[in-house]
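Protein modeling request. Please complete all fields; requests missing the sequence field cannot be processed.
Requester role: graduate student
Desired output: 3D structure, C-alpha cell encoding
Chains: 1
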Amino acid sequence: MTKTLTAEHLIKHDACVRQVQLFRELFPNGVEPTAELCEKHASDFDFDWAARYLLRAPTWAEYDKVREAAWAEYDKVCSPARAEYDKVCSPAWAEYDKVSEAARAEYNKVCEAARAEFDKGSAPAWAEYNKVCVAALAEYNKVRAAAEVEYNKVCVPAWAEYKKVRALAFYHSWLIEELSHGEA
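Delivered output (184 residues):
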C-alpha cells in the first residue's frame, strides 16, 4: 500500500511555490506515486529535492547512489559532445577575439590621432569597429549554433534519460521508505 502524496505534504517540507502549484494542477487530490508517473514527470518535478526532503536518510542514500551513477553516465555520454563543442567553438571565438582586438586597436589608433576632433574622428572608427565585430560575432554564432545542435543531439536525450532514472530512483526509494517505515 503506497501513501498518497499531497500538495500539503510538499508544503510541510518547504517545497518551492512553483513545484507546489504544478503539483496541485496535475494532482489536485494528491497522488500515489507510480513508476510510470515518476517517469512521465521526470522533467517536471525536482526529484532530487523530493528525495532529500521526503525520504529518510538511509533511503535517500540509496537514491543518491542511483542518481550519482545516472549522473556519471550522463557525463560520460556528454563529455565527448562537450569537448567537440568546445573544440569547434574555441577557434571561432579566437578568430572573433583576434578580429575584434585588431578592430579595437585600429579604433584606438584613430581616436588618439583625432583627439582634438574626437566626435568627428572616432564616430566613423567606432562604426567600423562595430561593423567588423558584428560580422565576426555573427560568424562565431553560426559556428557555435551548429556545434550546439550536435551537442544537443547527444546531451538532450542523455539529460532526459538521467532525469528519468532519477525519477524512477525516487519512486523505488519512496516504495522502500513506505515498506520499511510507513508514513514519511
